[in-house]
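Annotated sample (chain length 334).
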Amino acid sequence: MKPFFRFFALSSLCAASAAALSPGSDAVAPPVTPVAAAPAEPAATRDPGGDAERRLQTLTRETTNGRHELDQLGKDATAAHTRLVTRGRAYVRMAKAGLLPVGGGFSALVDHAVRLERLRNAIAQDIALERDLSARRVALARRLTDAETRRGALEAEVQALGAARTALLSEQDRADAFARAFSSSVGSSHTAVYGAGMGPSDPTALASGFGALKGRLPFPLIGRSEIRTAHRSGSDGPGVEMLAPAGSPVRAVHAGRVAFADAYAAYGRTVIIDHGGGYYTVSANLGSIDAEVGDDIATGARIGTVGDADGGARLYFEIRSGTATVPASEWFGI
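Output written by the structure step:
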């Protein structure tokens, strides 16, 4: 009966091994390919966007392959456990037979003993395979957990880089539009048009356009305001700041067409009006914009409101001839 007791010892090992496994389906166990950790790189050397996306794609492929391998290992473990149970039952039946084969003679007894020993060896191999599959599944599951954690961090990094890239492109688009605004009338037939009852009454000024208003240009704000010379980053000359309550209406000083209406760098919300003849006015630091690019604006028309930024409510105003900023105070006669 020693084979019988030997089977029970093997059965105990089988049960302990089977408890560590989860269900699956039939397959032969392939070698496990470890989910390799992506090499760490200094943040300063990373290519914003592209490198992170490539690393994310690589890690995603590795985790996908790892999950497939884990599923396959589960199927292999189930197949191995099924074989172990089947062979174990066969072993019990043969072991219970004891010396019954003696009736068939010595050769039958020897054949019975050989088959029993082969079955015992097969059971031992099944137990070893189950243990190996269990260990490989545990190790792979840990690698996948670590890879998923790193993939989540990379996804967040890629999203942040994408948002930053979009913001940079949007800012560059604004910068390009701001620069193009001062060349919109070059070579064009656009001329300023006055609305009914608006604009200067001097026929000479009407005929000569914006340039004839130097020294008597109307102010963009109605009512009292404090005026001082100021500069904005990106401008080659002085503009003026007009201190006024936030929300005060800002009006066009002369008829023209809106060439830019958006937020731009240090200028904040800005409206640029092309008055024809290469002259432009820039109304910046606005609280709101009430005009759109392409709108034909009459003298005195509302284009926005005074904003409250950079230390107080004020309007920043420039006059440009082409791209060159000219002293605005001379045009207002102050």
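Annotation: The first helix runs from residue 2 to 19.
Annotation: Strands lie at 226-230, 239-243, 249-251, 256-264, 268-276, 279-289, 296-297, 302-309, 312-321, 324-326.
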